[in-house]
Every structure is written in C-alpha cells, then in structure tokens.
Amino acid sequence: MYDVAIIGGGVIGSAIARELSKFEVNAVVIEREQDLCCGTTKANSAIIHGGYDAKPGSLKAKLNVEGNKMFDELSKDLDFPFKRNGSLVVRTKDQDKEGLQKLYDQGIANGVEGLRIIERDELIKMEPNLADDVVDALYVPTGGIVCPFNLNYALAENAADNGVEFKLSTKVEKVAKTGDHYTITTNAGDIEAKTVVNAAGVYADEINNMVSSKKLHIVARRGQYELLDKSAGNHVSHTIFQLPSKMGKGVLVTPTVHGNLLVGPTAEDVDNKEGVNTTAEGLGGLAATSALSVKNVPMRQVITSFAGLRAHEDGGDFILGEAEDAEGFFNAAGIESPGLSSAPAIGVMIAKEVAEKLSLSENKNFNGKRKGILNPATLSLEERNELIKKNPAYGQIICRCESISKGEMLDAINRTLGARDLDGVKRRTRGGMGRCQGGFCSPRVMELLEQEVPMSPFDVTKNGPDAKIVFGYNKQI
Predict the structure, then answer these.
(1) Annotated active-site positions, please?
(2) Topology annotation, domain 83-145+219-312
(3) Which fold has domain 376-452?
(4) What is the rounded average pLDDT for all residues in the chain?
(5) Fewer CB within 10 Å, N or C, the chain?
(6) What is the pLDDT of residues 255-268, one digit of tens each?
(7) What global pTM score does this model have?
(8) Residue 201 DSSP class
(9) Which of 3.40.50.300, 1.20.1250.20, 3.50.50.60, 2.60.120.560 would CATH assign to domain 2-41+148-218+315-358?
C-alpha cells in the first residue's frame, strides 16, 4: 500500500514527486511510456514565461510568477541548463497599443518585476532583426529559456534518489475508490494507494472522470515547431513573442539554451490525443507568421520539425487540488502554457496539500542536490584532457554534430532512471539532435544500449517497445 500514487511522469508529475520526497512518504510515479518526458513535456517551446499573460487572480497567474522565481536556485541544485534571456512582446504598426498596455497592466497586477514598454529605437538596439513594422514592445526581463528534458529528468532523478519509486511501461486502465484507499488497475497489475495525484496530461480528464462526478473535458491543442541549426542561434537573443490571440501566444522566435533557434508553435485543436504528427499546412505557415515579428529568419537552416500537444481544459485555468467529491484524489489537470514555468510551484502546492492530508512528517535525510550528465564542453582544455586520461570514453565522440562522447551516453544509460531507447539517450545528452538527426550516431548508440542494459539488438527501439529498428539479419529477410 502506497501513501501516494502519482499518475504521469512528465514535468508536473516529477515536480510533485520531488516535493513529496521532502516528506517521509511511500510514493510511486506511474508512467505508461518506457521513459519519462514522453508527453507534453518533450515537445514545447522550452520557455519560462514572465507571468504577464494570465488573468490576474487565476492559478496560472499565481503559479507562473511563483514558479518563475524558483528556477535560478532549482537549476543550480539540480544541474540543468537555464538562462534568463528576457522576452519581448512586439507590436506592429497595424495593432492597437491597448493590447500591449493590457499585458503590462496584467503583469503588474500579477507581480511580474521589471516590466517596461519600450519604443522602436531602443528595441532595435536590443534586437536588430526585428521586423520593420514593429513599433514597440513589452520588455520582460524575467523571461527565460530552459531544457525541458533535463528539467524533467532532474526532478525525477532527485525524487528517485530520495526514495520515490517509478513504475515505467505501466498504463493506468482504471482508478476506483476501494474502502479507505484507491485501487489503480494497470496493464502490469493493481496498485493500491491512500491518495492519488492525477498528472496525466491530455488524459487527465479521463482519469478524473473515473472517480469524480465533476467531469473535466480536455482538448488536445497541437503546436507545431521548426528547429533551426546552431548557425542561426544568434539571430535573436531574446524570446520574441507576438501579441497573443485567443488561441495562444502566437508564433514565437527564440534561441534555445543549446544554441539553436526555435520557431513556432501553431495552435490547432485535434481530436486525437496521440496526434503529434506535423502537417505541411501547419509548418508551411510558420515562416510567414514569424516574419511579422522577426525578419530574415533563415528558414533554410531548419534541421527538424516536431509537434506537441497542450492539455486545454474547457475552463481555461489549471485544475489543481483535491476533488470535491473524491477524498484523497488530487488533480493537476489542464496544465497547458505556462505549465512548464509553473511546474516547480505546482509541485510545492500539490505536495503540501497531500502532506497535510496524510499528516506526513519531514524527511530529514532529503538531499535536494543532483548532478547532471557531465558536459566536457564546459571544461577547460586541461580539465578535459585530465578527464579523458581518467576515463577514455570521454575522448570517443559518438555524435559528431553535437560532439557528444561515449562517456556522456554511458552516463545517460547507467544513471538513476537511465535511458532505455535511442530517444532516451538523445533527450538526456543531445546525441542525435544535430544536423544529421542521428543518421551517423544511431548505430553506435544502439550498440551501447545492447552492451549496457543489456539487451538484444532486436529489442533496441527508437522510443518505446513498438518502435523497433532491427527486424532481422541481412539476406534472411
């Protein structure tokens, strides 16, 4: 019998798990995929929003600002990449200035610090590649960029190191109240827990509706993106937003923490909650739309495109806390933008409520530090040479595009909650994220997985058990 069962191993579930590990608790995270970070968390804008956009008084507004303030310390403690590059919400000459003023007023009401509306002369000094029609902008110095993969893994690894159990490849089929606890039926057997936390992303409504008469309805809102080569990474230095519409914050242009340039997303409601395919229509409009705010974006340098799904609940705000008619069942549902920015604060909020419900005591052995995968590029030449002397694997480059060594990939596979497929290695190390998109390094990564897990070459997959790569031997098929 667990004290807490968290359904969902994305950034929200992992943030809640880490905060709960600060208490004496028997907790488990249930994730249907073979790895963590396989849903909404793996495909988003990687933006830490300032907090000006949400309606004052909403959970989105409160938790965005609180979460934003936590990232500096969190990134140091958990060793993941984060940068406060600041953001600009730009207005073009055909748009009403009242829209920009409204965002400023909302930001002030929400407690966002350092907001300014700045005119074109100052803007162009900050961002020379802004479109000619841009006349002014809301400057948000607290805006930032992050690696969502490393954030997710950092939270989960630290939670696991502090005693939280993780059950992967475990799909929840049913949740039901059984006396004074919940029985969670999965494809891997029943799990019993005194309390349940629902952090199931686009499926959070289905989980909620199994136990509560207060039904939720989540629409999967697809966003399509294009990622440009690192040679385009300096085209802008801030995150450039357009004045938002009712469907979202519009198409942004932003540098990434790894030095690429990201353009997107689209915003389209889809019926299929697995609909993460890109479309010619969706991607085809990104160049023209992004040009409204940033000129001469070098779209010929696109190296990949991808799509992610946002969990849009009909009420438009986060659904957080204990369900009114299901004691011990806590929702973390409807987590769309600014969900990534709010994740640390959501973790604190839900963990506190669960801890009070169960009268949990403090875990005096909690260790809030975690060391990420060593990046030799951050070392001096002398330090790197010394590292290679001690461990020659760091001198063997597997991914040439991103200069990722065998040592980094071995770390990704063998660490807490380590990678078990190609995409797991890729998200943890960036091996396969460069110009060739894994064309050169994938066979070598497969060999490492075979040796280290270990596994048969026929069991190595791209992402999950059904995405097999090898089906037989030459001349036998």
Answers:
(1) 49
(2) D-Amino Acid Oxidase; Chain A, domain 2 (3.30.9)
(3) Arc Repressor Mutant, subunit A (1.10.10)
(4) 96
(5) C
(6) 999 999 999 999 99
(7) 0.96
(8) G
(9) 3.50.50.60
